[in-house]
Amino acid sequence: MGYSPDPAARGRAAWTILLLLLSTSIPTLAAAAETHPWLNTSYTPEHRLHSFLSALTFEEKLAMVQGNKSAETNACIGYIPPIPHLNMPGICMGDGPEGVGNNLANVTTFPSPILTVSTWDTTLNEAFGDALGAEHKAKGRNVVLAPTINIIRSSLWGRAAESMSEDPYLTSRMAVAVTKSIQDGNNVIACVKHFAAYNQETNRFGLAPEFDAVSAVVDERVLREVYFPAFKAAIQEAGAGSVMCAYNKLNGQHACENSWLLSDVLKEQWGFDGFVVTDWYFAQRSTVRAALAGLDNSQPGGDWMEWYGFPDFFGGLLEDALGNGSVSVSRVEDMVERLWRPVFRVGGVDRPSSGLAGIDSVARTQEHLDLAQTIVEEGAVLLKNEGVLPLGLGEEKVIAVFGADAADQAAVTELHGGFVLDTTMVVQKPLDFIRARAQQDNITVLYSEAYPGTNAFPTIPSSMFGPEGLNVTYWTTTDFSGAPNRTVHADNITSQSYPPDIGAVWPDVFSSRYEGTFHPNASGRYHFSLSGNGGGSLYLGGRLVADMAGSNFGVVVQGVADLESGTAIPIRFDYSMGYSVDPGTYGITVGVNIPAQNPSLYEHAVATAQSADVSIVFVNDAHTEGLDSSLGLRLPGDQDEVISLIAQHSKKTIVVLNTNAAILMPWLDNVDAVIEMFYPGQQVGSATARLLFGDVNFSGKLPITFPAASEESPTASVAQFPGVNLTATYSEGLYVGYKWYDEFDVTPLFAFGHGLSYTGFAIGDLSVYSDLDLRSDSTQVAVTVTASVTNTGPVFGKEVVQLYVRFPEAADEPPKLLRGFEKVALDVNETATVRFDLSQEDLSIWSTEVGGWTVVPGVYGFLVGSSSRDIKRQMNVWLR
Ligand SMILES: *[C@@H]1O[C@H](CO)[C@@H](O)[C@H](O)[C@H]1NC(C)=O
Ligand SMILES: *[C@@H]1O[C@H](CO)[C@@H](O)[C@H](O)[C@H]1NC(C)=O
Ligand SMILES: *[C@@H]1O[C@H](CO)[C@@H](O)[C@H](O)[C@H]1NC(C)=O
Ligand SMILES: *[C@@H]1O[C@H](CO)[C@@H](O)[C@H](O)[C@H]1NC(C)=O
Ligand SMILES: *[C@@H]1O[C@H](CO)[C@@H](O)[C@H](O)[C@H]1NC(C)=O
Ligand SMILES: *[C@@H]1O[C@H](CO)[C@@H](O)[C@H](O)[C@H]1NC(C)=O
Ligand SMILES: *[C@@H]1O[C@H](CO)[C@@H](O)[C@H](O)[C@H]1NC(C)=O
Ligand SMILES: *[C@@H]1O[C@H](CO)[C@@H](O)[C@H](O)[C@H]1NC(C)=O
Ligand SMILES: *[C@@H]1O[C@H](CO)[C@@H](O)[C@H](O)[C@H]1NC(C)=O
Ligand SMILES: *[C@@H]1O[C@H](CO)[C@@H](O)[C@H](O)[C@H]1NC(C)=O
C-alpha cells in the first residue's frame, strides 16, 4: 500500500547486485533475465510476481505453504527453499524485535523496543528500524519477525519490553516508523505480530495434552479502537508485507483460523495483500478452517510436532483437502501469490540470498552501536529527581554504586522474545563508565554488590540435603494426579533430573516431586533460584519460596528465605513438564546463594553507603517470552529491601531500574531519584554515565502507566488477567492504561507520558483551528492545533509536547485520548511552535450500530501538556 520504491534507485541497486552475482556464483543470471521476466528489474514488482507464479507448477506452489523444521537452522527459523531451475532464491525468516536473534553472532543488542518507544521520537524509531532491517539482511534473512505491536495491557505481561506501549495511537506511530524503515531499502519484509489481542503469556497456547489456548474476550469496538489500530496503520501506512497470527483465541476462535479477523478485517477491509504466517509451533490448529479463514503460511512444521497432535496442517493434509474439495486450488494459489508479492515489492529477489549465505557476516557496526547508545540517552525516563541529579556539580566526593546489575549482570535484554543471544556481545558495564566519568571530576567511586543478581545460582550441593538425599516420585501426568509411576533417589535437583525411562520417549510430559531435608550451613538470608524449563514450585518448611509457572525459554525465578545454621528444614520441589519445544530442555535446576559464601553482602553494602555522598542502586527483573511475572509487580528476590536498607544509610539515593515494564516502588519516598531504563541493550554504560552526570539531558517519557498498588490497575482481577478457565475477559473495555486511571480517578505512581528533565518547559499559546464539516466526506485535515513550548530552565533540553483529545459525552470515550506528540529540542530561553494536524479519522470512534467509523458531533476538548496528568493548556471546540 504505502510502499512506493524509487525506480531509479532500485535500478541502480539491482545493477550492482547483478554485477556481484555475475562475478560470483550464478553466471546464467543475465541470460536468465531474458527468459525469466521475474528476474528483470525493469518490470513492475506485480508483473514480475505474476510471471514467476505462472512459471511454477502447482506442486511447487503447494510445497511453499508448509514450513519444514528439518530444513531450518538458526540462520532461518522459517525457511522456504530456493527454486533453482527458475533461478529464484528461497525465503528466510528470523527473530526478532530488538536485534537479530536465534543465537546468531556479531549483531547489535539494541535496547528493548519499550525503551526505543520511550524516546517518543519517530525519527529515532525509523533509524532503529533501518538498522534492524540492515542487520537481518546482513545475516541472510528476507523476513524479519518484528515488530511486536501488541498493546501492553498489563505490566505483568512477559513480553511487555518487546512491545511498544499501552496506547494505540503511540503504538501506531511507532509501528509505522519501525515497519516502514525495516522494509525501505533493506530488501527485507517486516512481519507485524501478533494478530490479534495477544497480551499475555499465560496459557497462550495451553498445556499438553489438550493445548487449549486462552481466549481473549474483547468486544468489537474495543478491538477496533485499542487492539487493531497499530496493525491497520502498519499495513496501510507502512506497507507491512506480512502479519503473524497469534497463539491465543479471540472470542473463542483461534486467531489463525478466525476468518473474520484474517479475511474480513485484515484482507478485505484493510486491503492487506501480503501473507499471514502462523506463530511458531502451536498457533495453527487445523487445515481446512485455517486455509479458508485466510492463513497463508504454516511454520515451522516438521514431523516431530505430530507427537503433540500438530501435524503439518499445510502439508499432506492440505493436499487431501484439495482432493476432497474442501479447499480450492485458487485458495492455495492465493497463498503463494501473497507470499511472494511483498518479496518482489521490497526487491528481495534482487540480492544474493539467503540464509546460510550471510550467517558468518558481521552485521554489527559502530554506527548501530552509536544508535543503540543514543536510544538509551533519549529513552531513559527520569521519574523522580529531588535535588540530587545531575552528579558532578561539586557536591559529591564519593559515589557508591550497588548491584550486580551495574556490573557483571547488567540486564540489557529480555531473556527471550525480542532477545539477542550473541556470544560476541560486549556489554558496557555502567560501573566502568561511571568510574571513568567520575574520574574527570575527581570523584571516587565505590562498588558493593549488595544483592547477588537475578541470574541462576549454583546448584544446591548434595551435602545440603544430608546423608539421606532426596526421594523423587514421578507421575506420567503433568499435575501429580493418578498413581505415581515410581520413586527413585536423587542427589540434587538439576535440569537432567527427568525419569530415566519415561524420559527415553522424547518428547514427553510428566510431573515429579522431590522431597527431603535442607540443612543450612550458615545463618542468614538464602537466595534460591529456579532456572530451566517447565513449571516448578519450591517449598521450605511448607512455605512457598519460589514459583515458576511454566516456561520453555530457560527463565530464572528467585526466592529468599532467612534460615538458621544447624536446623533441618523439610524441602519439597514440585516439577511439571507440559511440553518441551526444544530437545533436551527438560527440567529445572534449583540453585542457592548461601550467606556464608558472602557473609558481609549487606554489611558491606551498609558500610559502603555510609562512606559515600550519594548511592546509586541498580536493580532489575528478568522477564521473558513464555512466562508472565509470577512476582506480581515486585522486583525479584529482596531487591526492594536492599534499596530500603541502602537508602536508610545513604545521604542521597538514586535508583536505576532495568525492568520489563512497570513495577511497584515501596521505597519511593525514601529515595531521592528514580530512573527507568527498561532493558537498555549493550550500549548501556556510556549512556547511563552521561545521563547521570548531565552530559546529556533526560528526555524520555513513559509509554505505560506505573500503578501505585497492584490492585490499582485496569486489569487487576484474575478474570481479566490472566483469565479464569482459559478465558481472559477484557472487561476494562476501552479503559486501558491511563484511560482507566482518568475515568476512575485513580492516581498512578507515575503517569503515562511522564518524564522529567534537567531543564524546565512552559507550554502556551494554544490555538485550535477547524474546518471540519461532518456533512461532507472530506478527508482533509479536520483540526489543526498549535501550541508554543519554551525552555525556561538552565540547560538545553527536549520536551515531548503531547496532545490529548476529549471527545463529546455522546461518544462514550475515556476522558482523554492521545492524538499527537512531538519531541522538540530547545536551547535555554528558546521557543518553538508545535503543530498537530488531526484527520477526521483521529476524531472518529467505532460505532457498533453503524458497523463503521463515525465522528460524533459535539464539544471536543484539545488538551496540550507534558504528560497525561500534566495538562498545561486546553481549549474546547464545537465540531458539527
Ligand atoms: C528486461 O526487460 C526489458 C523491457 O522488456 C528489456 O528491454 C530488457 O532487455 C530485459 N533485460 C534483460 C536482462 O533481459
Ligand atoms: C524436510 O527437510 C528435510 C531436510 O532437508 C528433508 O529431508 C525432508 O524431505 C523435508 N520434508 C518435506 C515434507 O519436504
Ligand atoms: C564474529 O566476527 C569475527 C570477525 O569477522 C569472526 O572472527 C568471528 O568468528 C565471528 N564470531 C562468530 C561467533 O561468528
Ligand atoms: C478433507 O480433508 C481434510 C484433510 O484431511 C479433512 O480435514 C477434512 O475433514 C476432509 N473433508 C471432507 C469433507 O472429507
Ligand atoms: C582533579 O585533581 C587534579 C589533581 O589534584 C587537579 O589537577 C584537577 O584540577 C582536578 N580536577 C577537577 C575537575 O577538580
Ligand atoms: C548432582 O547429582 C549428580 C548425580 O549424583 C552429580 O553427578 C552432580 O555432581 C551433582 N551436582 C552437584 C552440584 O552436587
Ligand atoms: C511407568 O511409566 C513407564 C513409561 O510410560 C511405563 O512403561 C511403566 O509401565 C510405568 N510404570 C508404572 C508402575 O506405572
Ligand atoms: C525416601 O523414601 C524412603 C522409603 O519410603 C524413606 O524411608 C526415606 O526416609 C525417604 N527419604 C527422604 C529423604 O524423604
Ligand atoms: C471454572 O470451571 C470450574 C470447573 O468447571 C467451575 O467450577 C467454575 O465455576 C468456573 N469458573 C468460572 C469463573 O467460570
Ligand atoms: C534567559 O532569559 C533570562 C530572563 O530573561 C535571562 O536572565 C537569561 O540570561 C537568559 N539566558 C540565556 C542563556 O539566554
UniProtKB/TrEMBL annotation:
Keyword Hydrolase: yes
All copies of domain PA14, residue ranges: 465-606
Cellular localisation: Secreted
InterPro entries named in the record: Cellulose_deg_GH3 (IPR050288), Fn3-like (IPR026891), GH (IPR017853), Glyco_hydro_3_C (IPR002772), Glyco_hydro_3_C_sf (IPR036881), Glyco_hydro_3_N (IPR001764), Glyco_hydro_3_N_sf (IPR036962), Ig-like_fold (IPR013783)
Signal peptide (UniProt feature, chain positions): 1-32
One Gene Ontology molecular-function label: beta-glucosidase activity
Keyword tags: Carbohydrate metabolism, Cellulose degradation, Glycoprotein, Glycosidase, Hydrolase, Polysaccharide degradation, Secreted, Signal
Pathway: Glycan metabolism; cellulose degradation
UniProt-listed GO biological process terms: cellulose catabolic process
Keyword Glycoprotein set for record: yes
GO cellular component: extracellular region
Entry-linked SMART domains: Fn3_like, PA14
EC number of this enzyme: 3.2.1.21
Catalytic activity: Hydrolysis of terminal, non-reducing beta-D-glucosyl residues with release of beta-D-glucose
Family that this chain belongs to: Belongs to the glycosyl hydrolase 3 family.
Function comment: Beta-glucosidases are one of a number of cellulolytic enzymes involved in the degradation of cellulosic biomass. Catalyzes the last step releasing glucose from the inhibitory cellobiose.
Protein name, entry field: Probable beta-glucosidase G
